[in-house]
Amino acid sequence: MDCIYKDPNQPTEARIKDLLSRMSLREKAGQMTQIERSVATPSVLKDLSIGSILSAGGSGPFDKALSADWADMVDGFQKSALESRLGIPLLYGADAVHGNNNIYGATIFPHNVGLGATRDADLAQRIGVATALEVRASGIHYTFAPSVAVCRDPRWGRCYESYSSDTDIVRKMTSIITGLQGKPPPGHPKGYPFVAGRNNVVACAKHFVGDGGTNKGINEGNTISSYEDLERIHMTPYPDCISQGVATIMASYSSWNGTQMHAHRFLLTDVLKVKLGFKGFLISDWEGVDRLSKPNPLGSNYRTSLCTAVNAGIDMVMVPHGYSKFLEDLIDLVESGEIPMARIDDAVERILRVKFVAGLFEYPYSDRSLLDTVGCKLHRDLAREAVRKSLVLLKNGKNPTKPFLPLDRKAKRVLVAGSNADNLGYQCGGWTATWCGASGRITIGTTVLEAIKEAVGDKTEVIYEQNPSPATFESQDFSYAIVVVGEGPYAEFTGDNSELIIPFNANDVISLVTDRIPTLVILISGRPLVLEPWILEKMDALVAAWLPGSEGGGITDVVFGDYDFEGRLPVTWFKSIKQLPMHPEDNSYDPLFPFGFGLTYNKKGPLN
User: Fold this and answer.
1) What is the pTM of this model?
2) Could you tell me how far CA 357 lies from the centroid of its own chain?
């Protein structure tokens, strides 16, 4: 071993120092570059010493590729990277935000808003462990998760990626980081990244900072607040992440009082790196640098934007396509003195630190022995448990003394209806199979309808009509109906919504059915939606099921009475859009259902 950096017995910092001393400026710039899979050729990886590749949502080797196919692809990229002059391994990243959700057949867990309804830190940690195994099975080392946003307005298109509107619940659920990365040993240095081993992944707390607090919930918008409120509401989860050894943090597209986060040296460097002591690397969001120079990102402003972002503290740039211009401008900015060499060295040290800590120099390739964990029964059972615990019972019986649930599984004939009853894609939501998600059988899982058919007695007839008509009821005598309605999938700005009405004519379907037979309504959504008093009155029972993922059986476990309801609202359920944003501390707080509300079978009153 003539190179200290290649010797696993040497201290990490000595390995970093040795490797850094051998690197040219071009190689350093290459390490700061993250490119999309679609532009990653063997020559680019080998000749430019590219530091990282990512898959955009749904960007895989081919449609419905399995984890083994992904591992083949990632290992192929890694082989090219290791052929570079210094043989620095790649870090491959993807958005595994509710399980390894890009990959066909992976376990899809409930989105964060549902986990926030459980308030169960141990559950979050166990989901982190399972997700890490499935991610590593696919060859991927790095997930852009968790989002520790505190969503203060349900109009935001990323509302479901936030555990709660309450900072304390978000803080509690950061335990998923210990699941993903492993638990640092006692005495682990403060702020230093930690990854336990080959069954763990590099995590990423995001988006620093204030992403959930933008004016009117506009994605990538402006968070208008004092520093004290920014710190108290939005920043407090980050020290929890850092104390668990989170290896990376992603900057937010959003602005604070008009200054974009990707350009905010005070918050990115003085606060995050100096005051909070974060020693991992800070990554930009997708084209985050380009968005500093709206409206013409690839014009002459790009160089200025890049200078601003790197000097502000961005260590790795998610380019993701125009890497030639990025590298040319970055090298030129250093050679002209506009970005100090010390800033480049700091960025590269942080990136190498994470790669050494993650064991990539010793184990650069995928571990095929993990493939059996993908979508395994143990993980699906865990996802089903998470669904059960996330459900919030909002109404049970038109008369509180006569509860409607649990349902009779031996009923003679049951009607199942609604847009979301038999649609796995809608049940999983955004960031599933693709960036925005999709309709239909996009992965392996159990829809609510399939779960109902499994749960009822063998003599029970289940009639499914997505959009029933008056004729549906003419010749058939139903015991009760289950109407499953809600949102279609969306991600980021595509989900920004200033009206929050249940789509797909849901109220018409609910009204038609409830006028004729007793009805349980299950709402599949990433956030509270408008529930007019007249429609709420017609329902016999109402359950908020959030975006439960692939395991619809968790819903039937509870509505048929095998388990009790445990979920409590992680956000306030507003009466009308005019009230937004609304918070429990407001003097005018007048919700439809307050933050923390949730009924159960056994306790007479609500959980809160």
Assistant:
1) 0.97
2) 24
